[in-house]
Specification:
Elements: H1 11-26, E1 33-34, E2 39-40, E3 48-52, E4 60-67, E5 73-81, E6 85-89, E7 93-97, E8 108-116, E9 121-127, E10 130-136, H2 147-150, E11 157-160, E12 168-173, E13 184-185, E14 188-189, E15 197-202, E16 212-218, E17 224-231, E18 237-240, E19 247-248, E20 258-266, E21 272-277, E22 280-285, H3 297-301, E23 307-310, E24 319-322, H4 334-337, E25 344-345, E26 357-359, E27 361-362, E28 367-369, E29 374-379, E30 382-384, E31 391-393, E32 398-399, E33 410-411, E34 418-419, E35 423-425, E36 427-428, E37 433-435, E38 440-445, E39 448-450, E40 457-459, H5 460-495
Antiparallel strand pairs: 1-24, 2-11, 3-8, 3-12, 4-5, 4-11, 5-6, 6-7, 8-9, 9-10, 12-13, 14-23, 15-20, 15-24, 16-17, 16-23, 17-18, 18-19, 20-21, 21-22, 25-27, 26-29, 28-31, 29-30, 32-34, 33-36, 35-38, 37-40, 38-39
Length: about 500
């Protein structure tokens, strides 16, 4: 059953939200859905209702946290499903047993209300229409520190905290007289073993320090089943929860700002995890004792993934959808082939299946492909690549100047640029210096040259001193050699 995601807790923002939702859907291929991490709330105007279906003894937890419009923490509530029902109110009441009048039904509806006056803040929790907690916060009723600062903030947003929250199934604003109001699902459904998950982002590593994709996986019973984090930093990194720490991507990411990430899990004798970005394979790993630093990888990743959530710390994910294998690629993009001079061509015959790697080159030998030499089929005439292929005219190789490390000591009469293969004479630019290396170097390209010995300038006085020392050393050894020869002759004569 698909649950509508169109509820906002503030009636004043409800219509605006619907307009934004319709706009986002119309602009996003139709099958993309917004990646929500939090929702709007005004508990003083409209209470919040949420549903759970966990049983006593399941150790499940429901955790909702509230925030000010500027992001400041504004309180939170825990419901524990242990041997008895417990609750806690952050920065006010520690873990405390709920009264005995809790409904015996498994499917429960909890309601949280807040009443604020100039004198106090009163929080009320109901379960299946029966009041179970009412507290007027004060130094007497709150045994935990910080209640007056935290709970005095105006609540504007909330989220159910992953992965701690394993009990909450749906939520909605508590609309008076509207018992049939649509519920919003906390859990997002996918069978990752058969259907990959695609997530769309629209940030670049150069402008998104700290932006991350954080998706957490669960079993159908909401037991932890791993997760993937993608950090769009420089360099970009990824982490496989319950397996690896943060690792640099082994492949350069596509330069396009808009990226579609595809996460695939394949079950079998071995489990295989793949991450693709715009069709290009970025990660392909088999979790094992050698690839995972976390010893609990097997217990976690061998579970079937049927539920996922975006972490509230996810700041990059915009949309998501299940990946349905599209049709084949029918040919190269029209803009790559329409200009005869700069035409991109391939030796691969079409059609080809999605994920097929296709080599591309320029049809005109006077041009070269400045972008990716290979592209990956997505569907139709849509392809993935790191840099878009583009044919540009070849420029004869030339040297633009001397090596950077030479310029503070060497000079030349040559006028740059000079064609590759040109022999360039170099001399010392400082008076009283002498070049102890090659006086001529040959241009390769850019600032690269070949030489018999690298040119290097030293003060002439220093060179003379070196020569004197070398001469004295030779003279010393010659003198010693003469003495040794005479001593040897004397010794030989005495033996005769």
């Amino acid at each position: 059953m698909e649950i509508n995601t169109q509820i906002r807790l503030s009636s004043s923002s409800y219509v605006l939200y619907l307009l934004l939702l319709l706009q986002s859907r119309s602009a996003s291929s139709g099958d993309w859905k917004a990646a929500q991490r939090y929702d709007e709330a005004d508990l003083e105007e409209t209470p919040l209702e949420f549903r759970t279906n966990s049983t006593l003894g399941s150790k499940a937890v429901s955790l909702v946290r509230f925030f000010h419009i500027e992001g400041s923490f504004a309180g939170g509530i825990y419901i524990y499903f242990d041997s008895d029902f417990y609750y806690s109110i952050e920065n006010c009441i520690p873990r405390t047993k709920l009264p005995a009048n809790i409904s015996s039904t498994t499917d429960k509806i909890w309601k949280v209300s807040l009443n604020r006056t100039s004198e106090n803040v009163t929080l009320q929790i109901d379960c299946d229409q029966a009041n179970v907690v009412t507290i007027s916060m004060s130094d007497t009723t709150c045994s935990l520190n910080g209640w007056s600062t935290i709970w005095s903030r105006k609540i504007a947003r909330f989220y159910f905290v992953s992965p701690t929250d394993t009990a909450t199934v749906y939520y909605r604003p508590s609309l008076q007289g509207d018992a049939a109001a649509n519920w919003t699902a906390v859990d997002l459904k996918i069978d990752l073993q058969t259907t990959p998950l695609e997530i769309k982002t629209n940030v670049t590593t150069s402008t998104s320090e700290g932006s991350s994709v954080i998706v957490i996986f669960y079993t159908s019973q909401r037991k932890s089943a791993g997760g993937i984090t993608i950090q769009l930093t420089s360099p970009p990194k990824y982490m496989i929860r319950s397996c690896t720490s943060y690792i640099d991507f082994p492949t350069v990411l596509p330069t396009a700002g808009e990226k579609v990430w595809r996460i695939t899990k394949t079950n079998g004798t071995d489990i295989r995890l793949q991450i693709r970005c715009n069709g290009l394979e970025m990660v392909n790993v088999i979790p094992s004792n050698s690839t995972c630093s976390d010893g609990g990888w097997s217990e976690i990743w061998r579970k079937d993934i049927e539920i996922f959530r975006f972490s509230f710390k996810d700041t990059a994910s915009e949309f998501y959808r299940p990946y349905i294998i599209p049709g084949p690629c029918s040919g190269l993009k029209a803009e790559w082939t329409r200009n005869e001079t700069t035409r991109i061509v391939t030796s691969t015959p079409f059609p080809v299946d999605p994920d097929t790697v296709i080599p591309v080159t320029c049809s005109n030998s006077d041009f070269y492909n400045k972008g990716s030499q290979e592209v990956v089929c997505i569907t139709g005439t849509e392809f993935g690549y790191i840099d878009e292929p583009k044919c540009v005219e070849r420029v004869p190789e030339a040297c633009s100047g001397l090596k950077t490390e030479w310029t503070d000591q060497l000079t030349t009469a040559a006028k740059f640029p000079v064609p590759s293969g040109t022999v360039v004479e170099v001399t010392c630019s400082r008076p009283g210096h002498i070049n102890t290396g090659a006086g001529k170097v040959k241009c390769v390209t850019g600032t690269r040259f070949t030489f018999t010995s690298e040119p290097s300038c030293y003060p002439l006085v220093l060179q003379v001193l070196v020569l004197i020392l070398e001469y004295r050393e030779v003279q010393y050894w010659c003198t010693n050699y003469s003495v040794l020869v005479r001593q040897t002759e004397v010794a030989l004569r005495s033996k005769r």
